[in-house]
Amino acid sequence: MKIAVFDSGIGGMTVLHQIIKLLPDEDYIYYADTAHLPYGEKPKEVIKEYVFQAADFLMTHDLKALVIACNTATSAAIEDLRKRCSFPVLGIEPAVKPAVLESEKEKKKVLVLATRLTLREDKFHRLVERVDKHDIVDGLPLPGLVTSAEAFHFQEDQIVPYLKEQLEPFDLNQYGTVVLGCTHFPFFKDSIKKLFPSNTEIIDGSVGTAKNLKRILEERHQVGGGTGAISFFQSGREVDNRETLDRYHKLLRRLDQLQ
């Protein structure tokens, strides 16, 4: 049996990376819905239909779990998707709660960087209302980072000017924690760090999702049994192009270097 990790593009690789670190003896499917990316600017019902199509395909592959490694897709579809699947379905959400707890100690604010859809979804607002009792959470959509990641443009001389422009209205000294609320954004962690004070924490939700998956599989006595193999799919087609496969594996190595 396999663990499937789904995203609209390459962002979910940041979640897959964390899962492999905790669960190395599994077999994986990574599914990128590249035919329909980016998700962050599309209507909720459209995204939900894309997620259902991908899930229907993945259900034919003997899964022990499905991880929706996309904040936008989680917001749009996770509750309905769980009703369709007989195996555990995990989502991801911005790590607002730990960010608020940490920043409150320092009397600082929290800045959530995400897609527009994630920031305007009821799921996100309910999360903020539940944990943000002192109105310290701000949000900023950064769709340009998704576009850059999907084009494999990670160079700081391209990314930093964009970040500076988008962050210009904010007093960065006010923020104790920055939450990377899109799974594409950890690829740019070093660039983001350069713009904030050195003591600002930069966090995301992928570690929590990986730990939750491990706990669930342990409870179901389903840990292990694999070889660490990863199959890559793009919108229902298995990737067999050597150049594309090399790109995916280079992304995993890049994430090793960013830890």
UniProtKB/TrEMBL annotation:
<dbReference type="Pfam" id="PF01177">
    <property type="entry name" value="Asp_Glu_race"/>
</dbReference>
<dbReference type="InterPro" id="IPR004391">
    <property type="entry name" value="Glu_race"/>
</dbReference>
<dbReference type="GO" id="GO:0009252">
    <property type="term" value="P:peptidoglycan biosynthetic process"/>
</dbReference>
<dbReference type="InterPro" id="IPR001920">
    <property type="entry name" value="Asp/Glu_race"/>
</dbReference>
<keyword id="KW-0961">Cell wall biogenesis/degradation</keyword>
<keyword id="KW-0413">Isomerase</keyword>
<dbReference type="GO" id="GO:0008881">
    <property type="term" value="F:glutamate racemase activity"/>
</dbReference>
<feature type="binding site">
    <location>
        <begin position="183"/>
        <end position="184"/>
    </location>
    <ligand>
        <name>substrate</name>
    </ligand>
</feature>
<dbReference type="GO" id="GO:0071555">
    <property type="term" value="P:cell wall organization"/>
</dbReference>
<comment type="function">
    <text>Provides the (R)-glutamate required for cell wall biosynthesis.</text>
</comment>
<comment type="pathway">
    <text>Cell wall biogenesis; peptidoglycan biosynthesis.</text>
</comment>
<feature type="active site" description="Proton donor/acceptor">
    <location>
        <position position="70"/>
    </location>
</feature>
<dbReference type="InterPro" id="IPR018187">
    <property type="entry name" value="Asp/Glu_racemase_AS_1"/>
</dbReference>
<feature type="binding site">
    <location>
        <begin position="7"/>
        <end position="8"/>
    </location>
    <ligand>
        <name>substrate</name>
    </ligand>
</feature>
<feature type="binding site">
    <location>
        <begin position="39"/>
        <end position="40"/>
    </location>
    <ligand>
        <name>substrate</name>
    </ligand>
</feature>
<dbReference type="GO" id="GO:0008360">
    <property type="term" value="P:regulation of cell shape"/>
</dbReference>
<feature type="active site" description="Proton donor/acceptor">
    <location>
        <position position="182"/>
    </location>
</feature>
<protein>
    <recommendedName>
        <fullName>Glutamate racemase</fullName>
        <ecNumber>5.1.1.3</ecNumber>
    </recommendedName>
</protein>
<dbReference type="GO" id="GO:0042802">
    <property type="term" value="F:identical protein binding"/>
</dbReference>
<feature type="binding site">
    <location>
        <begin position="71"/>
        <end position="72"/>
    </location>
    <ligand>
        <name>substrate</name>
    </ligand>
</feature>
<keyword id="KW-0133">Cell shape</keyword>
<keyword id="KW-0573">Peptidoglycan synthesis</keyword>
<dbReference type="InterPro" id="IPR015942">
    <property type="entry name" value="Asp/Glu/hydantoin_racemase"/>
</dbReference>
<comment type="similarity">
    <text>Belongs to the aspartate/glutamate racemases family.</text>
</comment>
